[in-house]
Amino acid sequence: MREGRSTTMTWLLFSPSGRLGRMPYFLGWLFWVAVGGMLLAQMFASEGDDVQLGLWTLALVVSGLVSTLSIIMLTIKRLHDIGYPGPIVVCLFIPVMSPVVFIALCLWPGQSAPNSYGS
User: CA-to-CA distance for 76 and 35, rounded, in angstroms?
Assistant: First the structure.
């Protein structure tokens, strides 16, 4: 069965199964940073209008929750690519370790051979 583009994006952003290379992992993070930045800019642009500010704030909060879930899924797939189990994703929520883990996952090459998480 051939998967369509929307199915592929759904897998990329919201599925914990499979493996993910360094570049798609980094680009997934960059996507969510850009979405958050755009919503934050809209909030600042709506400072004078309370209704608009409230709506943009709500959009930012919802986006934050969705992006957190997505980043967890991206990180689980990235961990699978280097041969580690998904529960190590908890390290992203330890404040001092979070930047170190992110940089390591962006730089650490994946396993070239198939592992127990996929080819």
Answer: 21
d(CA 113, CA 14): 25
Alpha-carbon distance of 60 to 80, in angstroms, equals: 30
pLDDT digits (tens, 9 = 90+) for 75-84: 999 999 999 9
Q: Give the other-Cβ count within 10 Å of 77's Cβ.
A: 23
HSE-CB for 112 with a 13 A CA cutoff: 0
81: phi then psi, degrees, rounded to nearest 5: -65, -35
pLDDT beyond 90 at 5: no
Q: What is the mean pLDDT of the chain?
A: 91
Rounded CA-CA distance 44/94 in Å is 30
